[in-house]
Amino acid sequence: MGFGTVGRWLARVLAERYADRFQIVGLANRRDGFFYREDGIDLGAALAIAAEDRSLDALPDVARWSTAIEGMRASDADVLVEVTQSPPPEGEPGRSHLAEALERGIPAVTSNKWPIAIHGVALAELARRQSAFLRAESCVMSGTPVLSTLSEGLAGATPLAIRGVLNATANYILSDMARGQSYADALAAAQNEGLAERDASADVDGHDAVAKAMVLSAGGARSRRSARPDRGNRQCSPLPRRAARSGDGRGSRGGRRAGRPGSPERPPPDGRPSILLNSGRDRPRTLGPVRCRP
Q1: Which of 291, 289, 276, 282 is nearest to 158 (CA)?
Q2: Rounded CA gap, 54 and 23, in Å?
């Protein structure tokens, strides 16, 4: 579901590296609807059509439905990949696509933050009830296994809080501002590097960090976004040059703290990303740096 920037990138990777292991039987986008071919869709043709901004109606030998939900209900697949634009406040249409697949026992994987941020608990419960996998590692840290670490890897411990950098664009901008750059110059540099979008409001105003904090939070799907105050990069000022030179800048770098209400925040003294755990001891303790092997 979804054949924009992310969907096309994934299709290209599958076609170039895994053509002998995967067969794409369905494609959908908001404009053209849902397309299905039981013997597999020609991804090369689909990518060429999309590159020319033509309708996927031009695909050969495919069945078509006007909406993705209609097509999903009339067809079958082994796994759903959901990468549509699904903004707040409802996270649609991604939530409906994920729920439809999981209800039928079809495993689902997504990089959509807001459906998981707003409805993640309900979707996870549905997946367990139907014995289907739901994977969303790409929602936070671009696939680094942080979600599975929290849900599966910390057996016998209860994560109370997480502290860290959640947005790479904000990190880049605030790092430059900590060296004395103005916000406008730092944003322009991030855009020139291809790190920030032309409209960077989701990153610099904190919305992306809010979504990621909600995904990470154990109660994220029950949280109300309005209950989490935002302070974006626009409200920050560059450090005085003396502080910038000395490295004394201690600003937020697009970070968020995800935790249970009332849980204590005891970050490490050097401000490194950390996970605060309750492991059955009298006092919570901070988990040290976690390194992942390639």
Answers
A1: 276
A2: 23
Pair (187, 265) in one structural domain: yes
Q: What is the pTM of this model?
A: 0.76
Count CB-CB contacts under 10 A for residue 89: 10
- Whether 293 maps to a domain, the answer reads no
What residue has token string 């000022």?
A: 237
Token couple for 218:
């154990």
Residues assigned a catalytic role: 212
CATH number at residue 245: 3.30.360.10
Q: Are residues 139 and 163 in the same domain?
A: no
> Which of 109, 134, 153 is where one domain is finished?
153
Whether the Cβ atoms of residue 251 and residue 178 lie closer than 8 Å to each other: yes
**What distance in Å separates the CA atoms of residue 117 and residue 179, rounded to the nearest whole number?**
33
Residue 294 lies in a domain: no
Domain count, the chain: 2
How does pLDDT run across 96-152, given as a tens digit for each residue? 999 999 999 999 999 999 999 999 989 999 999 999 999 998 888 877 788 888 877
Q: Are residues 127 and 220 in the same domain?
A: no
Q: Coil, strand, or helix at residue 208? A: helix
C-alpha–C-alpha distance, residues 12 and 268, integer Å: 42
Q: What is the three-state SS of 8-75?
A: HHHHHHHHHHCCCCCCCCEEEECCCEEEECCCCCCHHHHHHHHHCCCCHHHCCCCEEECCHHHHHHHC
Domain, as residue range, for 93: 5-153
Task: Please give, one letter per residue, the 3-state secondary structure of 140-180.
Answer: CHHHCCHHHHHHHHCCCCEEEEEEEECCHHHHHHHHHHHCC
Instruction: Give residue-wise pLDDT tens across range 220-243.
Output: 334 444 445 456 666 566 655 444
